[in-house]
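ingest -> validate -> predict -> emit
validate: passed (alphabet ok, no gaps, 182 aa)
predict: started
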Amino acid sequence: MHVAILDTTATLVAEHGLAGVTMSRIAQETGIGRATLYKYFPDVESIMVAWHDRQVADHLRQLTEVGTQPGQPDERLAAVLRTYARLSAGHSTHELGALLHRTEHVSHARQHLLDFVAGLISDAAAAGRVRDDVPARELAAFCISAMAAANDMREPGALDRLVATALAGLGATAKPLGRRKR
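emit:
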């Protein structure tokens, strides 16, 4: 029931906006009583925060899976950046984004991601595959911020170019994106 509430609310908010969704509508769409819904959540915003927390946890799981695959450290880093860019693409930046990104959970998730990417960069630097003249944590912050630009990318190939640009900034020696001939 919890999953249905989260998913239904997210769908309704995507269709009607945060202000256009009521607890009554969520209860109706999920087929539960309003009293039952209120037993789990006090309002629509809290449902959306719970939905977002679930999304963030799933994204971290996906990034960890990608980043722990066998391969050269710079290739794993490139795969994580590609995945992060894909996950970041098309996310809203209006009032809902502001609501969802101010939670403590998101702050902890960002720190986890920063540490994870910094670890990949450290491994790649130790292998001589990326620059080592800038602290890994600073480079990780650069990469994470750069991948946030994926939110505005709509053209085919834009995400790959974004990742390639970030990797070039790291001085990556691998060409994991399969360069196209011109």
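The chain has nine helices and no strands.
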